[in-house]
Amino acid sequence: MIRTLAKQIGEFKWIAIISPLFMIGEVIFEMIIPVLMGQIVDRGIYGRDLSFIGTTGLKMVIVALCGLCCGMLGAYTRAKASAGLGRNLRKAMFDNVQTFSFANIDRFSTSGLITRMTTDVTNIQNAFQMLLAMAVRAPGSMIVAMCMSFYLSARLAGIYLVAVIFLAIVLFIITKTTTKYFKQVFEKYDALNESVQENVTAIRVVKSYVREEHEISKFDRAAENICRMFISAEKRVVTIAPLMSATVYTCILLISWIGAHMIIGVGGGSTLTTGELMSLLTYCMNILMSLMMVSIIFVMLTMSEASARRIVEVIEEKSTIGNPADPVMEVADGSIVFDHVMFSYREGSGEPVLKDICLSIRPGESIGIIGGTGSAKSSLVNLISRLYDVTDGRVLVGGVDVRDYDMEVLRNQVAVVLQKNVLFSGTIYENLRWGDPDATDEECRRACRLACADEFIEKLPEQYDTRIEQGGSNVSGGQKQRLCIARALLKKPKILILDDSTSAVDTATDEKIRRAFAEEIPETTRLIIAQRVASVENCDRIIVMEDGQVCGFGTHSELLENNTIYREVYESQTGGDRDFDEKG
To answer: Could you tell me the pTM of the whole model?
Structure first.
């Protein structure tokens, strides 16, 4: 895990290395100042030597300025290194997510990925910055201060040693008990983000069903869970401050009491000067505050450990689908063969979604696919563009197993318009050119004519330069579907899959789209998934699916004659046996 995170420091590695060096310089300069202060008291004030006070005071100013410069440079390099790590972590996760197959994506929820790229990365970024600041400063300051204390008075320095050991044991116990709470709290962020995401995405549904109070209560529960977990952890962490204060003041009292006796020489000659006592008191604060910093580091690392594991989980996730060693770089035609295909979303567990599918589709054919909800129609076509890999059997496109193709080549020749149509923020032209970045304006308009999208685009004030809001929220469902079909057509694919993508358009428009396809792109193999028989009855052949199996494959008239399921669907949609008699 640490190695994976360390790799993401990347080009900021040297800045991250330099930053602690500046911190060491700052600590050294800070430790010199108490010694100079002690000398001013002992030799300058008690010795009434004004020139020594002036000279030493000047040295203190120079040392303080040097410490300030080191501190500023350290702060700058820390900020740059930690921000760079945060940027690289987000980029590494996002880049890897782009390589995921649908099977990989199914493992991570949308809210979980958002939490990882926001809250979790921020935790790691803050912990890394704290580590660069304190991991060197706190131990370095404590060691140097302890050494200087023993140099001035080994007897009094022993008090520090006892205090440090006591606090170290207490801090270890506290941080150990808080770890489990911080591990749980960041998992609760997923539920919180999910609540927000669902509410914002479906705000129209929420308002139409007057479910605002329900959504508020759901959000409140998620927020309350996080609050409760943080309180449980913080109740233990806050005990550090009073313990530190009690220890610091006890040390100051003991040093002052024993030091005073040593200065006035109770029971013997004086063994300590006033200036040395002042220096020791200063070092007391440095040592104990350094220990406080160490405790903060432990808390930050404890909080970030869960975040680190969640981030590394995404970065190290390997796509279940990859390119072969020597991929085929050209798709010959749009022919499709399913050769005894079996498919499960989770290999080795549960009932197969597709069971022994055997189909052969010729290039340029128009194929309708119809079946009830859950009959695995979408699962079938997802195998063609290799969004998933088959569990058993083969899917051939252009006579070649889809697993032998370069994935980019295959997917450029298989255009898919999914059930959930997605548009991106930008103009209509910009959305259309997702299909072909180099498409001309005329090519975009032609694709829109084929998809019957020109009918509403040309009525808009800015026509093709009209801006589409995120998710296509400012266009209707039918308009969104037609734009997505036009976008797919711009790829000039050998295979076009329409996954129930005309469900939101009226029957007349659906008919015009299908007629345009037949006339304008006859060489493209077309697979049309639909709920309406009217959308597929003019296809060359129709696949009837039920429970993950092909229970019928033929022309409209053949299926009406021989397939009970298709005939029942047809009759339920067209009004009964009379229509069947006329058509059949």
So the answer is: 0.61
